[in-house]
Design a protein that fits this description.
With 483 residues, the protein is mainly beta. It contains four helices and 33 strands. Strand 15, helix 4 and strand 16 form a beta-alpha-beta unit.
Length: 483
Protein backbone atom coordinates (compact mmCIF):
# COMPACT_ATOMS: atom_id res chain seq x y z
CA UNK A 1 0.00 0.00 0.00
CA UNK A 2 2.85 2.39 0.81
CA UNK A 3 4.39 1.79 -2.62
CA UNK A 4 1.11 2.51 -4.36
CA UNK A 5 0.60 5.67 -2.31
CA UNK A 6 4.03 7.02 -3.24
CA UNK A 7 3.46 6.26 -6.92
CA UNK A 8 0.09 8.01 -6.84
CA UNK A 9 1.63 10.98 -5.05
CA UNK A 10 4.34 11.18 -7.70
CA UNK A 11 1.74 11.41 -10.47
CA UNK A 12 -0.10 14.17 -8.58
CA UNK A 13 3.11 16.18 -8.33
CA UNK A 14 3.87 15.52 -11.98
CA UNK A 15 0.55 16.95 -13.09
CA UNK A 16 0.41 19.94 -10.78
CA UNK A 17 3.94 21.30 -10.52
CA UNK A 18 4.38 22.57 -14.06
CA UNK A 19 7.97 23.69 -13.45
CA UNK A 20 8.97 20.03 -13.10
CA UNK A 21 6.81 18.65 -15.90
CA UNK A 22 8.19 18.59 -19.44
CA UNK A 23 8.53 16.90 -22.82
CA UNK A 24 4.92 15.89 -23.54
CA UNK A 25 6.09 14.56 -26.91
CA UNK A 26 8.78 12.44 -25.27
CA UNK A 27 12.49 12.25 -26.03
CA UNK A 28 14.91 9.76 -27.60
CA UNK A 29 18.58 9.39 -26.67
CA UNK A 30 20.99 7.71 -29.09
CA UNK A 31 24.24 9.56 -28.27
CA UNK A 32 26.11 10.05 -25.00
CA UNK A 33 26.30 13.80 -25.69
CA UNK A 34 22.51 14.06 -25.46
CA UNK A 35 22.44 12.47 -22.03
CA UNK A 36 25.34 14.56 -20.74
CA UNK A 37 23.59 17.77 -21.87
CA UNK A 38 20.15 16.84 -20.53
CA UNK A 39 20.46 18.64 -17.18
CA UNK A 40 21.61 21.84 -18.88
CA UNK A 41 19.04 21.66 -21.65
CA UNK A 42 16.13 20.84 -19.29
CA UNK A 43 17.22 22.09 -15.84
CA UNK A 44 13.80 21.84 -14.17
CA UNK A 45 12.62 18.70 -15.92
CA UNK A 46 12.01 15.88 -13.43
CA UNK A 47 8.72 14.46 -14.72
CA UNK A 48 8.65 13.37 -18.37
CA UNK A 49 5.09 13.49 -19.69
CA UNK A 50 5.83 11.51 -22.87
CA UNK A 51 7.96 8.46 -23.68
CA UNK A 52 11.72 8.03 -23.22
CA UNK A 53 13.79 5.83 -25.50
CA UNK A 54 17.42 4.92 -24.85
CA UNK A 55 18.96 3.22 -27.86
CA UNK A 56 22.27 1.96 -29.13
CA UNK A 57 25.89 1.30 -28.24
CA UNK A 58 26.90 4.97 -28.42
CA UNK A 59 25.65 5.43 -24.84
CA UNK A 60 28.16 4.55 -22.11
CA UNK A 61 26.55 6.11 -19.01
CA UNK A 62 23.08 7.18 -17.85
CA UNK A 63 24.38 9.43 -15.06
CA UNK A 64 23.12 12.57 -16.84
CA UNK A 65 19.49 11.45 -16.32
CA UNK A 66 19.65 11.36 -12.52
CA UNK A 67 17.19 14.27 -12.12
CA UNK A 68 14.30 12.28 -13.64
CA UNK A 69 11.88 11.01 -10.99
CA UNK A 70 8.74 10.12 -12.98
CA UNK A 71 7.83 9.10 -16.52
CA UNK A 72 4.16 9.32 -17.42
CA UNK A 73 4.66 7.48 -20.71
CA UNK A 74 6.84 4.48 -21.61
CA UNK A 75 10.51 3.79 -21.01
CA UNK A 76 12.18 1.80 -23.79
CA UNK A 77 15.80 0.68 -23.35
CA UNK A 78 17.27 -1.05 -26.40
CA UNK A 79 20.76 -2.42 -27.13
CA UNK A 80 22.63 -0.43 -24.48
CA UNK A 81 26.20 -1.47 -23.64
CA UNK A 82 26.33 0.32 -20.27
CA UNK A 83 27.52 -1.90 -17.35
CA UNK A 84 24.28 -1.20 -15.48
CA UNK A 85 21.46 1.36 -15.30
CA UNK A 86 22.99 3.75 -12.77
CA UNK A 87 21.61 7.21 -13.45
CA UNK A 88 17.98 6.10 -13.24
CA UNK A 89 18.22 5.63 -9.45
CA UNK A 90 15.80 8.48 -8.70
CA UNK A 91 13.10 7.18 -11.03
CA UNK A 92 10.16 6.11 -8.86
CA UNK A 93 7.27 5.52 -11.29
CA UNK A 94 6.55 4.75 -14.94
CA UNK A 95 2.99 5.31 -16.04
CA UNK A 96 3.26 3.18 -19.18
CA UNK A 97 5.51 0.28 -20.20
CA UNK A 98 9.06 -0.60 -19.23
CA UNK A 99 10.86 -2.60 -21.93
CA UNK A 100 14.52 -3.61 -21.70
CA UNK A 101 15.77 -5.29 -24.86
CA UNK A 102 19.16 -6.57 -25.95
CA UNK A 103 21.33 -4.90 -23.30
CA UNK A 104 24.76 -6.15 -22.19
CA UNK A 105 24.46 -4.97 -18.56
CA UNK A 106 25.36 -7.75 -16.13
CA UNK A 107 23.20 -6.29 -13.38
CA UNK A 108 19.95 -4.35 -13.05
CA UNK A 109 21.48 -1.86 -10.63
CA UNK A 110 20.07 1.61 -11.18
CA UNK A 111 16.37 0.78 -10.76
CA UNK A 112 16.43 0.76 -6.95
CA UNK A 113 14.08 3.75 -6.76
CA UNK A 114 11.40 2.28 -9.01
CA UNK A 115 8.23 1.26 -7.13
CA UNK A 116 5.48 1.36 -9.77
CA UNK A 117 5.01 0.52 -13.46
CA UNK A 118 1.53 1.15 -14.80
CA UNK A 119 1.81 -0.92 -17.99
CA UNK A 120 3.90 -3.94 -18.94
CA UNK A 121 7.40 -4.88 -17.81
CA UNK A 122 9.16 -6.78 -20.59
CA UNK A 123 12.80 -7.84 -20.52
CA UNK A 124 14.16 -9.77 -23.52
CA UNK A 125 17.59 -10.75 -24.89
CA UNK A 126 19.47 -9.24 -21.93
CA UNK A 127 22.64 -10.42 -20.18
CA UNK A 128 21.92 -9.56 -16.53
CA UNK A 129 22.01 -12.43 -14.04
CA UNK A 130 19.39 -11.31 -11.50
CA UNK A 131 16.75 -8.67 -10.82
CA UNK A 132 18.34 -7.10 -7.74
CA UNK A 133 17.94 -3.57 -9.07
CA UNK A 134 14.16 -3.96 -8.83
CA UNK A 135 14.24 -4.56 -5.09
CA UNK A 136 11.57 -1.90 -4.40
CA UNK A 137 9.23 -2.56 -7.34
CA UNK A 138 5.83 -3.20 -5.77
CA UNK A 139 3.28 -3.11 -8.57
CA UNK A 140 3.08 -3.84 -12.29
CA UNK A 141 -0.25 -2.64 -13.62
CA UNK A 142 -0.56 -4.97 -16.62
CA UNK A 143 1.76 -7.83 -17.58
CA UNK A 144 5.16 -9.16 -16.52
CA UNK A 145 7.16 -10.78 -19.35
CA UNK A 146 10.65 -12.35 -19.14
CA UNK A 147 12.03 -14.03 -22.25
CA UNK A 148 15.40 -15.07 -23.70
CA UNK A 149 17.47 -13.67 -20.83
CA UNK A 150 19.99 -16.52 -21.02
CA UNK A 151 22.20 -15.43 -18.09
CA UNK A 152 19.31 -14.90 -15.70
CA UNK A 153 19.46 -17.66 -13.07
CA UNK A 154 16.92 -16.36 -10.56
CA UNK A 155 14.40 -13.60 -9.98
CA UNK A 156 16.12 -12.48 -6.78
CA UNK A 157 15.32 -8.84 -6.25
CA UNK A 158 11.59 -9.07 -6.97
CA UNK A 159 10.67 -9.91 -3.37
CA UNK A 160 8.81 -6.59 -2.94
CA UNK A 161 6.54 -7.24 -5.92
CA UNK A 162 2.96 -7.57 -4.65
CA UNK A 163 0.82 -7.14 -7.76
CA UNK A 164 0.96 -8.17 -11.42
CA UNK A 165 -2.08 -6.97 -13.34
CA UNK A 166 -3.29 -9.42 -16.00
CA UNK A 167 -0.50 -11.58 -17.44
CA UNK A 168 2.69 -13.33 -16.32
CA UNK A 169 4.82 -14.93 -19.06
CA UNK A 170 8.25 -16.46 -18.32
CA UNK A 171 9.73 -18.32 -21.28
CA UNK A 172 12.93 -19.20 -23.14
CA UNK A 173 15.29 -18.33 -20.27
CA UNK A 174 18.15 -20.82 -20.58
CA UNK A 175 19.64 -20.72 -17.05
CA UNK A 176 16.62 -19.68 -15.00
CA UNK A 177 16.21 -22.09 -12.09
CA UNK A 178 14.41 -20.15 -9.37
CA UNK A 179 11.30 -17.93 -9.46
CA UNK A 180 10.50 -18.14 -5.75
CA UNK A 181 10.91 -14.37 -5.37
CA UNK A 182 7.43 -14.06 -6.91
CA UNK A 183 5.86 -15.69 -3.84
CA UNK A 184 4.81 -12.30 -2.46
CA UNK A 185 2.57 -11.55 -5.46
CA UNK A 186 -0.88 -12.07 -3.94
CA UNK A 187 -3.36 -10.40 -6.27
CA UNK A 188 -5.85 -12.66 -8.09
CA UNK A 189 -6.27 -10.56 -11.22
CA UNK A 190 -4.21 -12.68 -13.60
CA UNK A 191 -5.98 -13.94 -16.73
CA UNK A 192 -2.96 -15.40 -18.55
CA UNK A 193 -0.03 -17.44 -17.18
CA UNK A 194 2.70 -18.94 -19.38
CA UNK A 195 5.84 -20.67 -18.09
CA UNK A 196 7.61 -22.66 -20.79
CA UNK A 197 10.96 -23.48 -22.41
CA UNK A 198 12.99 -22.79 -19.26
CA UNK A 199 15.00 -26.05 -19.23
CA UNK A 200 16.51 -25.57 -15.76
CA UNK A 201 13.36 -24.47 -13.90
CA UNK A 202 12.08 -27.36 -11.71
CA UNK A 203 9.55 -25.53 -9.50
CA UNK A 204 6.87 -23.11 -10.63
CA UNK A 205 4.39 -23.47 -7.74
CA UNK A 206 4.75 -19.83 -6.67
CA UNK A 207 1.84 -17.94 -5.12
CA UNK A 208 0.51 -16.15 -8.25
CA UNK A 209 0.55 -19.41 -10.26
CA UNK A 210 -1.18 -21.39 -7.51
CA UNK A 211 -3.79 -18.68 -6.95
CA UNK A 212 -4.45 -18.55 -10.70
CA UNK A 213 -4.92 -22.33 -10.91
CA UNK A 214 -7.06 -22.42 -7.76
CA UNK A 215 -9.42 -19.92 -9.36
CA UNK A 216 -9.94 -22.20 -12.36
CA UNK A 217 -7.37 -20.69 -14.72
CA UNK A 218 -5.52 -22.65 -17.39
CA UNK A 219 -1.76 -22.06 -17.43
CA UNK A 220 0.50 -22.90 -20.37
CA UNK A 221 3.29 -24.75 -18.53
CA UNK A 222 5.60 -26.91 -20.64
CA UNK A 223 9.19 -27.73 -21.65
CA UNK A 224 10.71 -26.79 -18.31
CA UNK A 225 12.67 -29.08 -15.97
CA UNK A 226 10.85 -32.10 -14.44
CA UNK A 227 8.44 -30.84 -11.79
CA UNK A 228 7.39 -27.87 -13.89
CA UNK A 229 6.57 -29.55 -17.19
CA UNK A 230 2.78 -29.33 -17.19
CA UNK A 231 -0.07 -27.85 -15.23
CA UNK A 232 -0.63 -31.12 -13.29
CA UNK A 233 3.06 -31.01 -12.25
CA UNK A 234 2.46 -27.87 -10.23
CA UNK A 235 2.23 -28.92 -6.58
CA UNK A 236 0.77 -26.08 -4.59
CA UNK A 237 0.24 -28.20 -1.45
CA UNK A 238 -2.78 -26.17 -0.41
CA UNK A 239 -4.01 -28.94 1.85
CA UNK A 240 -0.62 -29.56 3.43
CA UNK A 241 -0.55 -26.59 5.75
CA UNK A 242 -1.77 -24.08 3.16
CA UNK A 243 -5.12 -22.39 2.65
CA UNK A 244 -6.85 -25.45 1.18
CA UNK A 245 -9.33 -27.96 2.57
CA UNK A 246 -10.37 -31.41 1.39
CA UNK A 247 -13.93 -31.45 0.09
CA UNK A 248 -16.24 -33.96 -1.59
CA UNK A 249 -17.35 -32.64 -4.97
CA UNK A 250 -20.50 -33.67 -6.79
CA UNK A 251 -20.65 -32.19 -10.26
CA UNK A 252 -21.18 -32.81 -13.94
CA UNK A 253 -17.88 -33.57 -15.65
CA UNK A 254 -17.31 -32.66 -19.29
CA UNK A 255 -14.35 -34.07 -21.18
CA UNK A 256 -14.33 -32.87 -24.76
CA UNK A 257 -12.35 -32.83 -27.97
CA UNK A 258 -12.73 -30.49 -30.94
CA UNK A 259 -11.92 -33.16 -33.53
CA UNK A 260 -12.87 -31.99 -37.03
CA UNK A 261 -12.58 -35.63 -38.10
CA UNK A 262 -13.63 -36.24 -41.73
CA UNK A 263 -14.99 -39.73 -42.48
CA UNK A 264 -15.38 -41.16 -45.99
CA UNK A 265 -17.78 -43.95 -46.90
CA UNK A 266 -16.85 -47.64 -46.69
CA UNK A 267 -14.14 -47.39 -44.08
CA UNK A 268 -13.19 -46.92 -40.47
CA UNK A 269 -11.83 -43.61 -39.22
CA UNK A 270 -8.48 -43.35 -37.46
CA UNK A 271 -8.68 -43.77 -33.71
CA UNK A 272 -9.23 -40.44 -31.98
CA UNK A 273 -8.10 -40.04 -28.38
CA UNK A 274 -10.41 -38.44 -25.86
CA UNK A 275 -8.03 -37.70 -22.99
CA UNK A 276 -9.53 -38.16 -19.52
CA UNK A 277 -7.49 -36.38 -16.83
CA UNK A 278 -7.08 -37.42 -13.20
CA UNK A 279 -10.07 -35.68 -11.64
CA UNK A 280 -9.54 -36.47 -7.97
CA UNK A 281 -9.27 -39.18 -5.34
CA UNK A 282 -11.81 -42.03 -5.19
CA UNK A 283 -13.81 -40.80 -8.18
CA UNK A 284 -17.07 -42.57 -9.02
CA UNK A 285 -19.21 -41.60 -12.00
CA UNK A 286 -22.66 -42.52 -13.28
CA UNK A 287 -25.01 -41.51 -16.11
CA UNK A 288 -22.14 -41.50 -18.59
CA UNK A 289 -23.15 -40.03 -21.94
CA UNK A 290 -21.29 -39.67 -25.23
CA UNK A 291 -22.32 -36.47 -26.99
CA UNK A 292 -21.34 -35.90 -30.59
CA UNK A 293 -21.93 -33.13 -33.11
CA UNK A 294 -21.92 -34.21 -36.78
CA UNK A 295 -22.05 -32.30 -40.01
CA UNK A 296 -23.51 -34.39 -42.83
CA UNK A 297 -22.09 -33.52 -46.22
CA UNK A 298 -23.82 -33.56 -49.62
CA UNK A 299 -27.07 -35.51 -49.94
CA UNK A 300 -26.10 -38.31 -47.57
CA UNK A 301 -28.83 -40.43 -46.01
CA UNK A 302 -26.82 -41.70 -43.11
CA UNK A 303 -28.44 -44.66 -41.37
CA UNK A 304 -25.41 -46.74 -40.54
CA UNK A 305 -22.79 -44.63 -38.76
CA UNK A 306 -21.29 -46.68 -35.95
CA UNK A 307 -18.94 -45.86 -33.14
CA UNK A 308 -16.60 -48.06 -31.09
CA UNK A 309 -15.10 -46.95 -27.78
CA UNK A 310 -12.31 -48.54 -25.75
CA UNK A 311 -10.93 -47.52 -22.36
CA UNK A 312 -7.24 -46.73 -21.63
CA UNK A 313 -6.54 -50.46 -21.08
CA UNK A 314 -7.91 -51.28 -24.54
CA UNK A 315 -11.06 -52.97 -23.25
CA UNK A 316 -14.14 -52.34 -25.41
CA UNK A 317 -16.72 -50.10 -23.76
CA UNK A 318 -19.31 -49.71 -26.48
CA UNK A 319 -20.04 -50.70 -30.05
CA UNK A 320 -23.23 -49.68 -31.79
CA UNK A 321 -25.19 -47.36 -34.03
CA UNK A 322 -24.77 -43.72 -33.11
CA UNK A 323 -26.52 -41.75 -35.84
CA UNK A 324 -29.31 -41.88 -38.39
CA UNK A 325 -30.69 -39.12 -40.62
CA UNK A 326 -31.93 -38.67 -44.17
CA UNK A 327 -32.16 -34.87 -44.03
CA UNK A 328 -28.88 -34.33 -45.86
CA UNK A 329 -26.55 -31.36 -45.48
CA UNK A 330 -29.17 -28.61 -45.57
CA UNK A 331 -28.32 -25.11 -46.74
CA UNK A 332 -25.19 -24.51 -44.64
CA UNK A 333 -21.89 -24.51 -46.59
CA UNK A 334 -20.39 -26.37 -43.63
CA UNK A 335 -23.02 -29.12 -43.72
CA UNK A 336 -26.06 -29.45 -41.49
CA UNK A 337 -25.32 -29.77 -37.77
CA UNK A 338 -26.76 -32.74 -35.86
CA UNK A 339 -26.41 -33.53 -32.17
CA UNK A 340 -26.38 -37.10 -30.86
CA UNK A 341 -26.58 -38.27 -27.22
CA UNK A 342 -25.50 -41.87 -26.66
CA UNK A 343 -25.77 -43.47 -23.17
CA UNK A 344 -22.95 -45.80 -22.16
CA UNK A 345 -24.55 -48.06 -19.53
CA UNK A 346 -21.71 -50.57 -19.41
CA UNK A 347 -19.07 -48.19 -18.04
CA UNK A 348 -19.14 -47.48 -14.32
CA UNK A 349 -15.87 -45.60 -13.89
CA UNK A 350 -14.17 -42.84 -15.83
CA UNK A 351 -10.55 -43.98 -15.78
CA UNK A 352 -7.90 -41.36 -16.54
CA UNK A 353 -6.03 -41.82 -19.79
CA UNK A 354 -6.80 -41.94 -23.51
CA UNK A 355 -10.20 -43.32 -24.48
CA UNK A 356 -10.02 -44.36 -28.14
CA UNK A 357 -13.04 -43.62 -30.32
CA UNK A 358 -13.49 -44.77 -33.93
CA UNK A 359 -16.29 -44.11 -36.42
CA UNK A 360 -17.28 -46.21 -39.42
CA UNK A 361 -19.65 -45.83 -42.39
CA UNK A 362 -20.45 -48.67 -44.79
CA UNK A 363 -22.84 -46.68 -46.98
CA UNK A 364 -20.75 -44.73 -49.52
CA UNK A 365 -23.03 -42.12 -51.12
CA UNK A 366 -20.75 -39.18 -51.91
CA UNK A 367 -17.62 -38.96 -54.03
CA UNK A 368 -15.84 -37.28 -51.13
CA UNK A 369 -16.49 -36.87 -47.44
CA UNK A 370 -19.62 -38.49 -45.99
CA UNK A 371 -19.72 -36.72 -42.64
CA UNK A 372 -17.63 -34.59 -40.32
CA UNK A 373 -17.34 -35.31 -36.60
CA UNK A 374 -16.89 -31.78 -35.37
CA UNK A 375 -17.02 -32.16 -31.61
CA UNK A 376 -17.18 -34.98 -29.07
CA UNK A 377 -17.69 -34.94 -25.33
CA UNK A 378 -18.02 -37.47 -22.56
CA UNK A 379 -20.42 -36.24 -19.88
CA UNK A 380 -20.94 -37.87 -16.49
CA UNK A 381 -22.26 -37.20 -13.00
CA UNK A 382 -19.22 -37.69 -10.77
CA UNK A 383 -18.34 -37.57 -7.11
CA UNK A 384 -14.76 -37.27 -5.91
CA UNK A 385 -12.60 -35.92 -3.10
CA UNK A 386 -10.22 -33.10 -3.89
CA UNK A 387 -8.30 -30.20 -2.40
CA UNK A 388 -9.75 -26.74 -2.88
CA UNK A 389 -8.60 -23.31 -1.85
CA UNK A 390 -10.49 -21.42 0.82
CA UNK A 391 -13.63 -20.27 -0.96
CA UNK A 392 -13.43 -16.84 0.65
CA UNK A 393 -10.23 -16.21 -1.31
CA UNK A 394 -11.62 -17.27 -4.67
CA UNK A 395 -12.12 -14.78 -7.44
CA UNK A 396 -15.76 -14.41 -8.38
CA UNK A 397 -16.61 -16.53 -11.40
CA UNK A 398 -17.88 -15.01 -14.62
CA UNK A 399 -21.68 -15.06 -14.82
CA UNK A 400 -22.97 -17.56 -17.35
CA UNK A 401 -22.76 -16.28 -20.91
CA UNK A 402 -20.33 -13.47 -19.98
CA UNK A 403 -17.44 -12.92 -22.39
CA UNK A 404 -13.93 -11.64 -21.65
CA UNK A 405 -11.44 -10.63 -24.37
CA UNK A 406 -7.68 -10.33 -23.79
CA UNK A 407 -5.13 -9.03 -24.39
CA UNK A 408 -6.57 -5.73 -25.58
CA UNK A 409 -4.97 -4.36 -27.67
CA UNK A 410 -4.19 -7.72 -29.32
CA UNK A 411 -1.48 -8.49 -31.85
CA UNK A 412 -1.54 -12.02 -33.29
CA UNK A 413 -4.23 -13.81 -31.29
CA UNK A 414 -7.33 -12.68 -29.44
CA UNK A 415 -8.07 -14.85 -26.40
CA UNK A 416 -11.73 -15.32 -25.50
CA UNK A 417 -13.10 -16.53 -22.15
CA UNK A 418 -16.71 -17.64 -22.52
CA UNK A 419 -18.86 -19.08 -19.73
CA UNK A 420 -21.70 -21.27 -21.01
CA UNK A 421 -24.59 -23.03 -19.29
CA UNK A 422 -24.41 -26.11 -21.56
CA UNK A 423 -22.56 -27.69 -24.48
CA UNK A 424 -23.28 -26.10 -27.86
CA UNK A 425 -21.87 -24.53 -30.99
CA UNK A 426 -20.71 -20.91 -30.75
CA UNK A 427 -20.31 -18.89 -33.95
CA UNK A 428 -18.30 -15.69 -34.14
CA UNK A 429 -17.77 -12.99 -36.74
CA UNK A 430 -15.40 -10.01 -36.68
CA UNK A 431 -16.53 -6.69 -38.18
CA UNK A 432 -14.80 -3.42 -39.00
CA UNK A 433 -16.33 -0.22 -37.53
CA UNK A 434 -18.24 0.35 -40.78
CA UNK A 435 -19.88 -3.08 -40.52
CA UNK A 436 -17.77 -4.98 -43.06
CA UNK A 437 -17.15 -8.64 -42.18
CA UNK A 438 -13.42 -9.35 -41.69
CA UNK A 439 -13.42 -13.03 -40.65
CA UNK A 440 -15.66 -15.66 -39.12
CA UNK A 441 -15.47 -19.06 -37.44
CA UNK A 442 -17.03 -21.35 -34.87
CA UNK A 443 -16.11 -23.13 -31.66
CA UNK A 444 -17.82 -25.76 -29.53
CA UNK A 445 -18.21 -24.72 -25.90
CA UNK A 446 -19.12 -26.79 -22.86
CA UNK A 447 -20.81 -25.98 -19.59
CA UNK A 448 -18.60 -23.69 -17.50
CA UNK A 449 -15.58 -21.63 -18.50
CA UNK A 450 -14.21 -22.02 -22.03
CA UNK A 451 -11.08 -20.38 -23.43
CA UNK A 452 -10.21 -20.29 -27.12
CA UNK A 453 -8.13 -18.18 -29.51
CA UNK A 454 -8.99 -16.33 -32.70
CA UNK A 455 -6.16 -15.74 -35.18
CA UNK A 456 -6.13 -12.04 -36.12
CA UNK A 457 -2.65 -11.87 -37.67
CA UNK A 458 -4.05 -11.00 -41.10
CA UNK A 459 -6.25 -8.15 -39.86
CA UNK A 460 -4.93 -4.59 -40.41
CA UNK A 461 -4.25 -2.45 -37.35
CA UNK A 462 -7.42 -0.79 -36.11
CA UNK A 463 -10.66 -1.09 -34.15
CA UNK A 464 -12.99 -4.09 -34.55
CA UNK A 465 -16.08 -5.73 -33.11
CA UNK A 466 -16.56 -9.45 -32.54
CA UNK A 467 -20.12 -10.80 -32.55
CA UNK A 468 -20.79 -14.18 -30.94
CA UNK A 469 -24.03 -16.14 -31.25
CA UNK A 470 -25.09 -19.66 -30.31
CA UNK A 471 -27.76 -22.04 -31.52
CA UNK A 472 -30.13 -20.55 -28.94
CA UNK A 473 -29.86 -17.23 -30.81
CA UNK A 474 -28.11 -15.53 -27.88
CA UNK A 475 -25.89 -12.82 -29.37
CA UNK A 476 -23.17 -10.68 -27.79
CA UNK A 477 -20.92 -8.06 -29.38
CA UNK A 478 -17.61 -6.86 -27.90
CA UNK A 479 -15.10 -4.27 -29.18
CA UNK A 480 -11.34 -4.83 -29.35
CA UNK A 481 -8.24 -3.23 -30.89
CA UNK A 482 -5.71 -4.88 -33.23
CA UNK A 483 -2.24 -3.36 -32.86
Amino acid sequence: MRHFFFALLAFIFCSTLSAQSCLPGGIAFIYQEQIDAFAADYPDCTCIEGNIRLYGDEISSLAGLSQITQIKGNLHIDYLTTPDFTGLNNLTSIGGRLTIYGTTASTTSGFEGLIYVGGYVHTRFNEFTNMNGFQNLGEVGLGFFLSKNDNLSSLNGLNSLRKIGTAMWIFDNLRLNDISSLDNVTNNGLVSVLIKDNPNLPVCSVTPVCDFLDNGGYADISNNAPGCNSQPDVRCDLCAGGTGVYVTVQEDVFIYSDMDLMVDGVGVSPGMALEIPQLGDDITCSNIMLRAFFRVMGASCESDIEVSISDPAGSPIFLGNVFATCEGSGSSPFGKLYEVNLPIPVATNVEPGNWMIRFSDSNDQNSGIEFLVGFLSLDANCEYRTCENNLENREEELPLEEVRLYPVPADEYLNIDYDADNTRLLSYEIFTPNGKSATRGEEFVVKGKNTFQVDITTLPVGHYYIKMSDNNNVTQTKPFVKM
